Amino acid sequence: MNGWLQHLPILPVLLPLCTGTLLLLSSEQRRGRRAAIALCATLAQLAVAIVLLAMADGRVVAPWPGEIGVYALGNWAAPFGIVLVVDRLAAIMLTLAATLGLATLIYSLARWERAGIHYLPLFQFLLMGLNGAFLTGDLFNLFVFFEVLLAASYGLALHGSGAARVSAGMHYIAVNLVASLLFLIAAALIYGVTGTLNMAELAQRVAVLDADDRTLFDLGAVLLGIVFLVKAGAWPLNFWLPAAYGAATPPVAGIFAILTKVGVYALLRFAVLLEDVGAPAPFRGDWLFYCGLATIAAGTIGVLAAQKLDRLASHLVIVSSGTLLAAFGFTGTTLTGPALYYLVSSVLGMGAFFLVIEMAERNRTVAADMLAISLEAFGLQDKLDSEHPDEVAGIPIPAAMAFLGLAFFSCALLLTGLPPLSSFVGKFALLSAAIAAPPQAPLLHAGLFVAALLLSGLAGVIALSRLGIRVFWDTERPTPRLQWLEAGPVAGLVLVCVVLSFGAGPAMSYFNAAAQSLHDASVYVGSVLPAAAAGGAP
After folding, report:
1. Cα–Cα distance for residue pair 499/493, rounded to 1 Å
2. pLDDT for residue 528
3. Residue that wins the pLDDT comparison between 370 and 479
4. Does 387 map to a domain?
5. E strand or H helix at 71, and its extent?
6. Mean pLDDT for the stretch of residues 135-163
7. Is there a domain that residue 102 lies in?
8. pLDDT for 416-468, tens place per residue?
9. pLDDT in the model for residue 398
10. Alpha carbon of residue 455 to chain centroid
11. What is the DSSP string of 159-219?
12. In this structure, are residues 424 and 417 in contact, taking their beta carbons and an 8 Å threshold?
């Protein structure tokens, strides 16, 4: 049994890679078969992620000692070989990506995957890049997986048609190409002075650098931090995000909800590993904290100024990233566990909200330009001109407006942190931990953090109420026809958040254990480099 389990860490990378390649080689005309392959592969990724989640917590007998699994590709041990590292945090992110990916994939099968070519392969390659970024144990392969997910996201951002989508997509591509160049420069500088790109070994090599080499390392780390802040959507490097997310098709915007959290994850991982050797800006806690507060402020202003639901959702993504950055930069480690709980809830809620937006605005006049593009892309123009102009293929669900109203209300609760859903538990835990902060935490930090969370939540309530009234009190528009393939994923994501709220105790215990394991960098280093931890040669 252990012989089989030891290969599980590579499956989140291999499954989407093989599936994407197979889909590229298959005919676009075989839609049913291609959809079945993509669904089975994504379900398998979710199953593997759940097993890894249990293995990292010791609930399943793991083939590795301790709670951190290290998978050496080609059986070459670190630091010379490529390793994948599975701890609780990585397993949480893998499960979150697979859950959100499955929901958005199912939603896209109703109509959106037909708006352009190669949607399903690109979707699988995006999942491959996400999974690899969460698992990799060295900086170079983090760059590789970043580029895989970015290359796939470029195609998905441009999926469909329309001038607004192309314009926003090109801006998104340009910004990320510059960030990729900075990533390469940063990696070259770091490797030049330390002689390694393995994350665990970096923490050891940096401690013995002389002054000149340490200056060069700090410069490389600053460039690396800027790259991660761009990915995280941090202010002032997030100018590209509202247009790119708002213009993307609904399932693409839904899966994009987790992309900013890849940057947050990378910042957190490096900040913890470099903490004992003096983490340079912007990995230091005070930098992350004030950057998070500024990001919350910028996102809150955008939320209040938004006049369309897609722009509002994009700015709420920025607010959630700012909340996480501020929480991870807060003095001490007491906010990390609640922040991880909040991360999961906010990503699931945001993914559901992007899907709800299109369904809610489907027959509204303000969305006529999007509908015209969609009808042309889906080949439904003839149907529009026929005897039944509003008919769409598929079986519509009954009580569509009632479902949309309940789904919108649930998403509003999740995105603003109101009871009784899981985001309220996450925000309440964050506020409680900030107020009961350790003595070394400045009182000003606690006050600013509490004020930022409460004011951003209030702004979200105001904006969502205002735009929600416009959408659902428009009595002159016909009731939109929804398919089960569209309603099911939204209901599923909300249901996961309901389960999280009812199981808040066990879930929070897992997240706190993940935070404790994360902040004990010696355990990570000892698992990846056991010879070095034992005093042997690295």
Report:
1. 10
2. 82
3. 479
4. no
5. strand 69-72
6. 87
7. yes
8. 888 888 888 889 888 888 888 766 667 777 888 889 999 999 999 999 888 88
9. 54
10. 24
11. -S--HHHHHHHHHHHHHHHHHHHHHHHHHHHHHHHHS--BHHHHHHHHTT--HHHHHHHHH
12. yes
